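Translate structure to sequence.
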């Protein structure tokens, strides 16, 4: 019997639940207050006033635990209520690959990766660790297990952890794009493709800045974007022409900045514009009264919230001036 097709109206309860919770997201106004706070304690008071339970003498380690708990709560809530839990699992994929990177690189230098592992993935971190350390990668999801094996092999042969990261990045995006296509959501599929385009454009700019050769660039590029790799690879002899391929995508506003950054200009403005394009795409989710868009938008908003809080509090703990921290923050939380 064919699986029941999920309709937008199946999300009515969840969408109402999400819209009720959106006001609790730590948005731009609160982030700004945290930036301008005169001490880490004063910045954390902003979170406390928003309902966060902040422990006494909360340092960086305790904050990281709070942020992890916040993500786990969001994933758990949405996963238990979503008509299509696979949408939530798609957002968990990157934490499987975060754990894979940590394990592969720690093993190469004889270190313990436990403190670096995240509990937000689809597969429990302890399971990935056990399968990796006991050479039982076949027990993991095939793409993840194959990616770990290939990355470990590349690192052992080359001693270059960046090349191992490239292997796992490709595996991650391949899974993410496949899950988006399988979700039945054109909106989510478009977001996944735009995410790949964004990653590829950033990789090209960095590679051109460092005058990397074509073989290196090919290792960094990812399948699944709207700009096909065959066209990118055939244009590499001319960096400007390569970057102009993205002019017919939503990343068009970033192309001129990309050219400047690739030639040695400011890269932060270019990367910020890329992030703004992704945020602008996701802003459409906020306008949808129900359906899968509010779910996808909420998960992205929680991730952005966590990243922003981490950046601000890292600056607070280190005594970094607010203006320097502000430059690191994305526009449109």
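Result:
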């Amino acid at each position: 019997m064919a699986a029941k097709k999920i309709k937008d109206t199946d999300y009515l309860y969840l969408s109402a639940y999400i819209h009720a919770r959106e006001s609790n997201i730590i948005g731009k106004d609160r982030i700004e207050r945290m930036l301008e706070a005169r001490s880490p304690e004063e910045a954390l008071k902003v979170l406390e006033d928003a309902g966060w339970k902040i422990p006494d003498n909360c340092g960086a380690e305790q904050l990281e635990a709070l942020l992890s708990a916040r993500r786990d709560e969001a994933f758990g809530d949405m996963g238990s209520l979503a008509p299509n839990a696979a949408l939530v699992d798609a957002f968990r994929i990157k934490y499987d690959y975060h754990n894979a990177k940590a394990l592969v690189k720690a093993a190469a230098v004889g270190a313990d990766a436990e403190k670096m592992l995240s509990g937000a993935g689809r597969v429990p971190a302890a399971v990935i660790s056990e399968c990796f350390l006991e050479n039982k990668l076949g027990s993991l999801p095939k793409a993840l297990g194959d990616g770990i094996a290939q990355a470990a092999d590349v690192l052992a042969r080359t001693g270059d952890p960046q090349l191992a990261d490239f292997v796992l990045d490709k595996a991650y995006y391949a899974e993410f794009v496949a899950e988006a296509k399988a979700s039945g959501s054109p909106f989510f599929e478009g977001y996944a493709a735009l995410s790949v385009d964004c990653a590829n454009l950033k990789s090209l700019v960095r590679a051109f800045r460092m005058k990397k050769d074509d073989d290196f660039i090919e290792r960094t590029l990812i399948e699944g974007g709207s700009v096909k790799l065959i066209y990118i690879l055939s244009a590499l002899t001319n960096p400007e022409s390569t970057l102009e391929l993205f002019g017919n995508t939503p990343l068009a506003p970033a192309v001129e900045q990309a050219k400047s950054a690739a030639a040695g200009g400011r890269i932060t403005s270019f990367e910020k514009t890329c992030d703004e394009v992704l945020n602008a795409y996701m802003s459409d989710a906020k306008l949808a009264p129900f359906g899968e868009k509010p779910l996808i938008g909420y998960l992205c908003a929680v991730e952005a919230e966590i990243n922003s809080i981490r950046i601000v509090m890292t600056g607070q703990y280190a005594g970094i001036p607010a203006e320097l921290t502000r430059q690191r923050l994305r526009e449109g939380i």
